[in-house]
Amino acid sequence: MTITAVKGAVVPVIMTKTITDPAPPAAPSASQIILVVGPTASGKTALAMALAAHIRGAVISADSRQCYREMTIGSAAPLPHEMQSIPHFMVSDRSVHQHLSAGQFEQEALRCIASGMAQGQQIIVCGGAGLFLRALVEGLDDLGVEDPEIRSFWQKRYQKDGLAALQKEILARDPTYAAHADMNNHQRLIRALEIMDTHGEKVTDLRTRTTKDRPFRCWWVGLNPTRHLLHHSINQRVDQMIANGLEKEAAALFPWGSVKACQSPGYTEWEAYWNGEIDHATCVEHIKQHTRQYARRQLTWFRRNPAIHWIPPEITETSSRLEWVLRNLPIE
User: Fold this and answer.
1) Which terminus of the chain is more exposed, N or C, with fewer CB under 10 A?
2) 2 domain-assigned
3) Are residues 189 and 43 located together in one domain of the fold?
4) How far apart are CA 40 and CA 322, in angstroms?
5) CATH value at residue 131
């Protein structure tokens, strides 16, 4: 089957409610940032926007796909009118051909924070990309630029031989890294193999894990809905994305399927459907399944962070979550 690229932006219709408390407390100090984190479909964007409206803040997206203008539906990016009322950074501001690495995110986000603080804005960082967030708060080791040819080799190896082949390579070449890495995240494993091939050394030996000094303090707030509620939210979100035109968006990106951003839930599943290997319902179910797996990996990452203030899972409404944050988050 031949898929023709569809030009032009696709505007999603996923609504996010903005909530403003009638009696706002004193605004937090501009020398600190608030990080709203959690798994996909947990309500991070809604809470971040409610908080930004309440304290007249600005939002930086720490989402590895919301930054791409061709992926607005599949990434559940904020709507244009929402970004007019609340300043946003790093949302739909580049093409999928302009890959955003964790190191690049670190530098761009730091510039956004400095600019916002200079204007007296309270910065709220919202997202579920754990490596992006760690890069921003702690910094990353300089592991060199990416090598597209080496990355392509390992991507093809993954497509041919599966995750087990990557895991075997990592275990053989850097068992210390394997003991601490997310061995079910194929993109992370491909990056590790790319680094080792580029430098000729183990990832473990190249890392210093020196935390960089930042000119701001960080307050973390996490969303961790019950498993039942999170799965329900994911299923509902995927159904809404399908109604909003996710298939058309995926078809537009199909010619660039090797691009890293396109190798994510909501996009990779369609080829089997277009080729007649599965029916539409099965394709949609695969998207939901892969998204649930991604959410589980996100939670595994964030649960390792002792600095996160977790909102109790029984608090599900955005307005109640906002009240909890304002009551419990130790902001100045």
Assistant:
1) N
2) no
3) no
4) 18
5) 3.40.50.300
Same domain, 216 and 313: yes
Same domain, 169 and 182: yes
Q: What is the pLDDT of residues 133-192, one digit of tens each?
A: 999 999 977 666 667 778 888 888 998 899 999 999 999 999 998 998 889 888 889 988
pTM of the model: 0.79
In what helix (H) or strand (E) does residue 193 lie, and over which residues does it extend?
A: helix 186-199
- Match 């597209």 to its residue by tokens: 148
- Residue 191 identity: R
User: What does the alpha-carbon distance between residue 82 and residue 49 come to, in Å, rounded to a whole number?
Assistant: 9
Helices (H), the chain: 44-55, 80-85, 102-118, 130-138, 148-161, 163-173, 175-180, 186-199, 203-206, 227-244, 246-253, 270-274, 280-302, 318-328
Identify whether residues 90 and 229 lie together within a single domain. Answer: yes
316: its two tokens: 């599900």
User: Are 125 and 136 in contact, with CB atoms under 8 Å apart?
Assistant: yes
Looking at the structure, do residues 195 and 236 belong to the same domain, yes or no?
no
Walk along the chain (332 residues) in steps of 10 and give the mean pLDDT of each run.
40 33 43 96 97 94 96 94 91 93 93 93 96 92 71 86 93 91 88 84 77 92 97 98 98 89 93 97 98 95 95 97 92 59
Structural contact between residues 170 and 195, judged by C-beta atoms closer than 8 angstroms: no
Measure the CA–CA gap between 124 and 126, rounded to whole angstroms: 6
**200-229: pLDDT as tens digits:** 788 887 776 678 899 999 999 999 999 999
Which domain range does residue 164 map to?
148-206
CA distance 128 to 132: 9
Task: Report yes or no on 78 lying in a domain.
Answer: yes
What's the Cα-to-Cα distance from 126 to each of 33, 36, 77, 82, 275, rounded to whole Å? 11, 5, 12, 15, 37
Number of H helices, E strands in the chain: 14, 6
